[in-house]
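User: Predict structure, ligand alpha-D-glucopyranuronic acid.
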Amino acid sequence: MDTKSLSFFVVGLLTGILATAVGISWMAGRQTTNDQPVQILKLAHTLDPKHPVHQAMLYMADRLREKSGGGVELQIFPSGQLGSETECIELLQQGSLAMTKTSTAPLESFIPDLAIFGVPYVVRSEEHFWTVIASDLGQELLAAGEPKGIRGLCYYDAGARSFYTVSKPVLAPTDLQGLKIRVQQSKTAMDMVEALGGSPTPITFGELYTALQSSMVDGAENNAPSFHSSRHYEVCKHYSLDEHTRVPDMLLVSESVWRSLAPSVQQWLRESADESAAYQRQLWKEETARVLAELEQAGVTIYRPDQSAFNAQVNAMHESFAGTRLGELITRVSEM
Ligand code: GCU
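Assistant: Predicted complex:
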């Protein structure tokens, strides 16, 4: 190693040690074309690498590498390697993880307004969902975590959530009676299952396969790509498309890490995230159609129950929010 490389190595190592504490590191011994050490941002999430959201993050990493001339790298840890969604959000707040991608459901404990996505049948359709996301409210919700140390960069499509069960299909709300249904770490998700007649059991996504297999729960609910890539369909052979909620995924960056980034890096990251969101939206459509066909080939029966029966069942839940902030948000979304 010549003197110049050695000094880069030492600087890289020292800054790496210091910056690990704030979720960023520099790759020692590796320089960009203009002799700058490569900056590494760690991104953790809980989905499988086959999932379209992970594919979108790989796309974002490529875009960021290109825009930064190889100066900024995303290091992606999938499959819950660094913890559950709630744990990743906490790491982000502490600044010891730069980025994460979570569902807005567990984010609700940090940003209460995000509960709006968990209230069943408020978002009426795919088209309505995108109207909400593009609205001022969609943008406000993305920015709402900044005072809590969590900056939203973009939404990813997570389709509609529907019930899947081990031993009998859910064709009407009455079929949920007596069933233990796994829900995300979210009060609204608990209330939703209760309103529909089931018994909610919060379990992390990473622990769900075993919980289904060991009959700790009788079923769960999710979109088709997550049902498929988690292999929950190996245990649950009934998938009922009641489409009760459209809970998006959100890409987040630690506010303290964000503030330590150069304005040019912030700009590249913003652009790369937006580009990955557009890419993911297209990929989502293709993947959802593809995995529904694959699920059927794997022996899963897909049902299309009358959604109005489920919808009617949650009226009382909607009414219970009258006069609250969530009630105000329900009205705002319903009027879009
Ligand atoms: C969706 C979402 C994940 C989340 C999962 C869950 O798949 O994309 O981020 O972990 O739901 O039900 O926990």
